[in-house]
Amino acid sequence: MTNPLETMANSPFEIAKQAADQIREATGVQTHDIALTLGSGWAKAADLIGETVASVPAKDIIGFSAPVVEGHVASIRSIKLPSGKHALVLGARTHYYEGHGVRRVVHGVRTAAATGAKVMILTNGCGGIKETWKPGTPVLISDHINLTADSPLEGAKFVDLTDLYSKRLRDVARTVDASLDEGIYAQFRGPHYETPAEVQMVKHMGGHLVGMSTALEAIAAREAGMEILGFSLMTNLAAGVQKTPLSHAEVLEAGREAEPRISALLAAIIDKI
Questions:
Q1: Of 13, 49, 190, 271, which has the highest C-beta tally within 10 A?
Q2: Is 98 a catalytic residue?
Q3: Above 60 in pLDDT, residue 71?
Q4: What residues pair up with 232 in beta bridges, in sequence order?
């Protein structure tokens, strides 16, 4: 079946509006205030932030499909926070390397905006360049380098990315854990891991984290007028910094070990937003 987002005649914003309407009907929640995309190692946060109102299979919502990567969940959840606000948790992330196009990659973000969300929390598992960071370290994203050679913006849309990752939200995060470090995240196209030379290139460009998600989503979130908090879980040192071969099993294991701690951290931060 052809996905509507793959048809150029369809506006991606109209499809996002249709998806948001389906979420409203399925959950009974008319407006969501905060949205979260929970990457590798972050999924347990959804169980800690509040009361789940409804959980919908992602494939039942237009433009979404079940995730292809182990470590991601296949549902969209509506959660009532202790503050009375509602959070939309997007478990079905589409990665750029899946080959579905940028519209699909950022559809979740645009749908979240269409439900009314003003804050977008983007999380991921990634490789780290700083040798002082140990696997399992959560790092706030202060900026990014987009190495996909692509953009979710279409046409003559000129969006300012100066404060793309909100300093205000990073400051809120540090009221929960003052020791949180921050870094610049570089998104590659994937799905192969970066070469040691590519990692050194990012280091010389000022980057600290390397991965395969988040940057394109953040651009779309800013286009939609959302305030963005970016969080990386450093699951391993990047190629060439780490002296042993990289593996997805290693990423998953680091995520499992860190999950209780970082999920509780994220839940505490959301309580203050």
A1: 49
A2: no
A3: no
A4: 124, 139
Q: What does the alpha-carbon distance between residue 21 and residue 111 come to, in Å, rounded to a whole number?
A: 9
**Assigned token pair, 210:** 């390397």
For the chain, list the domains and their CATH numbers. Answer: 4-272 (3.40.50.1580)
pTM across the whole model: 0.93
Q: Which is catalytic among the residues 25, 70, 131, 194?
A: 194
